[in-house]
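Exercise 7b. Backbone tokens:
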């Protein structure tokens, strides 16, 4: 199944002195078919020649298609002058509540100054 909506994000830079990468706290408010709060941390690195990478762990708590629960999203983004990529996946086994057996991937689209998401997910039946 695919669900869509928007989210607002607040990034709070952390002052980690003497480290080669930056760290930010993430707070997202999701609306649409996915309603809830995403909290996490991001580690990023930017170089002088324009290469960048980031990794984040985000814990979503709320509901997806009116199913209450939580799960963990793993983010990995890379950027260079030639290409950029972003992969966001649900950590297998991290679901709880009505989302216990959730798996899937998320896409983020920035359009008209807003953040949009598309979550492709499945609820597998484990016996």
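Sequence design result:
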């Amino acid at each position: 199944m695919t669900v869509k909506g928007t989210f607002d994000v607040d990034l709070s830079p952390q002052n980690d002195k003497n480290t080669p990468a930056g760290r930010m706290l993430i707070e997202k408010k999701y609306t649409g078919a996915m309603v809830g709060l995403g909290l996490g941390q991001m580690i990023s690195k930017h170089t002088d020649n324009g290469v960048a990478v980031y990794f984040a762990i985000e814990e979503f708590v709320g509901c997806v298609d009116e199913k209450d629960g939580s799960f963990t999203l793993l983010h990995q983004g890379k950027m260079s002058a030639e290409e950029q990529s972003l992969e966001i996946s649900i950590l297998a086994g991290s679901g709880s509540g009505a989302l216990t057996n959730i798996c899937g991937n998320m896409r983020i689209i920035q359009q008209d100054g807003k953040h949009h998401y598309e979550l492709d997910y499945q609820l597998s039946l484990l016996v």
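Instructor comment: The chain has a mean pLDDT of 94. The CA atoms of residues 37 and 91 lie 17 Å apart.
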